[in-house]
Design brief:
The chain is of the alpha/beta class. The protein has helices at 18-30, 41-50, 64-75, 96-105, 120-183, 189-219, 231-241, 264-280, 338-348; strands at residues 11-14, 35-37, 54-58, 85-89, 111-115, 251-254, 288-296, 299-306, 353-357, 363-370. It is built from nine helices and ten strands. The strands form two sheets. The chain has a five-stranded parallel sheet, with helices on both faces. The mean pLDDT is 85.
């Protein structure tokens, strides 16, 4: 309970008659539970919004308007929260009216029915179970909040470190180039090799830091839904940036691409990484890349399909991890962050990304964007 406030551990009681509310409150209080009586369903809504562990409600105390208000209040809970509601129902045989009423009460969500006359120990055990369930929700919230803080701190550190590292790494690359130009004639073959290794490593580190910076920036994308983006413009911008690496005999085509609610810079980044990978991991055959989009259930699924070397299905999830590579730096240069950036962007826009592939048969990368 240390992670919950005083308001969050109380049990709210709504009963139509003062004596009923008094008996329920006394029963719960004698068992060590904090019980608070609500005079009507409007007061129950207010106190639910303030915080509560659970509520116990007499069925006849709920008006139709009150039931609607309480259901709307509970529907607005954060994702971790699901307040337990115990409803004391009327006794007697089941009827069409009682079945219909039960269906209406199910709108409260996490609801448990206890038929009257209910013994005190039944009420106590029901509320103890509800309280235990609520405490587990508070623990989950605490873990989520802790994890969010840790992730935020790590992202800030990664951003700061990658940003601050750019200048010294750039200086190493520049001065190693100057050394080679001015004093290369004074070095023997081994010295020139060492100096070349320094310059190559500095350039690779520079690329790595830039990609790491892009990865941390992808994590801080706002949750606000942007205006529709011209997808064809983002696609063409990606191709323009990749122009120097596209083979002369390559064929890169696209179906008409729809506008989607994702920022242009991020959509361009997605296309650039996926098409860039298709170019890098091409086979000996003339390169063929096709970009398409399909709408289903209010979700656009984009596909970037190539005829490259393909990927073993056992690595279809591994490749989206940061710094995860299936080939050596000598075979295929790169940092191993591109697909991780794509995954970050897709998830931030409530979508996902995956691959369909097998060795020697090309790859088909797909990502979704809500319409």
């Amino acid at each position: 309970m240390s992670n919950a406030s005083t308001l969050e551990v109380r049990i709210l009681v709504l009963a139509p008659r003062g004596r009923d509310a008094f008996l329920i409150t006394t029963t719960l209080s004698n068992d060590g539970m904090s019980a608070v009586t609500c005079p009507d369903d409007e007061a129950l809504v207010v106190r639910l919004q303030e915080g509560a562990a659970a509520a116990i409600v007499a069925e006849e105390a709920l008006t139709q308007d009150g039931l609607k208000s309480i259901a709307e209040c509970l529907a607005g809970q954060p994702p971790w929260s699901d307040i337990p509601i115990v409803v004391l129902t009327s006794s007697g045989r089941a009827s069409l009216a009682s079945i219909r009423r039960a269906k209406e009460l199910e709108a409260l969500g996490n609801v448990t029915f206890v038929e009257r006359p209910a013994r005190p120990d039944t009420v106590r055990s029901s509320m103890r179970a509800a309280l235990r369930a609520r405490m587990r929700q508070y623990q989950m919230r605490h873990r989520q909040e802790t994890l969010a803080r840790v992730n935020t701190d790590l992202e800030r550190f990664a951003y700061s470190a990658s940003h601050d590292l750019q200048e010294p790494i750039r200086n190493v690359a520049i001065y190693s180039e100057i050394l080679s130009m001015r004093y290369g004639n004074l070095l023997d073959e081994t010295g020139l090799e060492f100096l070349g290794n320094v310059r190559t490593s500095a350039i690779r580190m520079q690329s790595l830091v830039q990609d790491l910076l892009a990865y941390t920036q992808a994590a801080s994308i706002s949750d606000d839904v942007p205006e529709p983006t011209d997808t064809m413009a983002a696609y063409k911008s990606a191709l323009s940036n990749l122009a120097q690496s596209i083979p002369a005999d390559a064929s890169i085509t696209s179906d008409p691409l729809p506008p989607v609610r994702i920022r242009a810079v991020h959509l361009q980044q997605m296309f650039q990484n996926l098409i860039g990978n298709a170019i890098k991991y091409r086979s000996e055959r003339p390169l063929r890349i096709r970009v398409s989009a399909n709408l289903k259930d209010e979700v656009w699924t984009f596909a970037v399909e190539d005829n490259g070397i393909g990927i073993d299905p056992q690595y279809s999830e591994l490749i989206f991890g940061i710094f995860k590579r299936l080939h050596s730096q000598q075979q295929y240069p790169g940092t191993g962050i591109g697909l991780a950036i794509c995954q970050r962007i897709a998830e931030r826009y409530r979508g996902r990304i995956w691959v369909e592939s097998k060795p020697g048969s090309g790859s088909r990368f797909l990502f979704t964007v809500p319409a």
